[in-house]
Amino acid sequence: MDDYVEKWEKEVLEPILKARPERRDKFTNLSDTEIERIYLPDPNFDFKEKLGLPGIFPFTRGVYPTMYRGRLWTFREFSGFGTSIDTNKRYHYLLKHGQTGLSVAFDFPTLYGYDSDHSMSEGEVGKCGVAVSSLEDMETLFNGIPLDEVSVSMTINGPAAIIWAFFIACAENQAESKGISREDIRQRLRGTIQNDILKEYIAQKSWIFPPEPSMRLILDTFEFGSKEIPKWNTISISGYHIREAGSTAVQELAFTLADGLAYVDAGLERGLVLDSFAPRLSFFFNAHNNFFEEIAKYRAARRIWAREMKKRGAENPRSMMLRFHTQTAGVSLLAQQPMNNIVRVALQALAAVLGGTNSLHTNSFDETLALPTEQAVTIALRTQQIIAHESGVTDTVDPLGGSYFVEQLTDVMEKKCEEYFNRIRGIGKSKKFHIAVIECIRRGFFQREIARAAYRYQKEIDEKYRIVVGLNEYEDENDEINIPLLKIDPATERIQRERLETLRKKRNNEAVKESLAKLEEAAKTSENLMPYLIDCAHAYVTLGEIRDVLVKVFGIYKEPTDLF
Questions:
Q1: How far apart are CA 155 and CA 79, in angstroms?
Q2: What is the pTM of this model?
Q3: How far apart, in whole angstroms, are the C-alpha atoms of residue 371 and residue 303?
Q4: 164 versus 483: which is more confidently predicted?
Q5: What does the alpha-carbon distance between residue 539 and residue 552 come to, in Å, rounded to a whole number?
């Protein structure tokens, strides 16, 4: 082989390079990994250890043996705007057009645990997602949608346990109307609550409580879910927002898996049995523009997670399976020439599928300008359907398995991830990830790493090392935004406030006081708070009222001002 390559380099490559040099001296991907001209077989490649077969350890090729030949990924479109009445109409539209799972986007007040009529909510109600302030809003949101028949994903973190309690209470009320017991409906519920507070401190910043009580609430959901709602994914450990904040693919991989291991280590320290909660942990990754880098990221993630869980004593294969949802990169979409975003989304979605995603959301081309219109959402959904049914990439399991380039790039991603793990444990001064990650957050390590990566990427765009079509090259001077945009009715906030005022008058306020008092007392102990939160939900206690009680016990997190 060496003689063969040497002869090619001398007789074929060198004359070409002299006559026509390559476009750059060095090619790198978005994680600044140098990409070689050509990749050759690795004589030391261990097939069984690094690649193997799908559905078994180390799961590099996918978590199921038949992957999409057996069942396609779940088609999701992230949706939520205005009141729960508005979003309910959109959900019925999406289900009618072939969506197979619902994903709930909440507005900023809800993300921070405020009621729609709180002074901090003014001007933001229903703007970037749906306003949900009580069980009544949740019931309206899913009116006519049987929650025991559809998978629901909810993107919320700081108040995740509260919103999940609203959802559970909503499902229980639906069940009661059908003559189904609460115990039975809990066994049927399928879906995911994002519930990932560590990445909030790192990237997205929609926290409420300090890290320790926030971790307590998350472990409460793990424990409650494993016993009461066994089909529910009680966390979606999210690299998506880390990437949207400006990280590289390697940082997204390393920081996300470190967060995941932090939740696992915290659960083990609490005394939870690994195989009782680990099978319901799920992940959420970004799909950015560098096609092969993204595919390698997903493959490396599965392999690293399987190995780390095995180290911790996992015996159930499902505890070692990294199942993940993917969303195409919102940060990659441009306001300039917005129709080009359809192409970007298609390539990103294809990378996610070739990487073995279990669930997928494709962004709409207009999302850089506003919440998506029905037409834009339909195109995004059709993109997934065309990949699934027309491209042929779903006909075989892991079609890129064994590619010299993909396998070696996967190894590089894994190596760089391990290097970050060592840095996190070193800076955090602990081998236990829940201790190390929180210490790194407090020291600003993750935030500084992401800021440096974002700066480097922007500099490469400014210097035209990276061409972004329509932004720093191939601009259209006559480009005008002439696509229809979704506008939120200014009356939304008034309508939502009026709904809350009516609710507070008609509910049993004695039951409200009683359930809040019990929640406050339980919060002062080590009891699992989920049953108390569900009782509050059934009493139509509002999100903000529950938040205020927990803040009284737990306090509020304030990010240090000297991180940089």
A1: 10
A2: 0.94
A3: 36
A4: 164
A5: 20
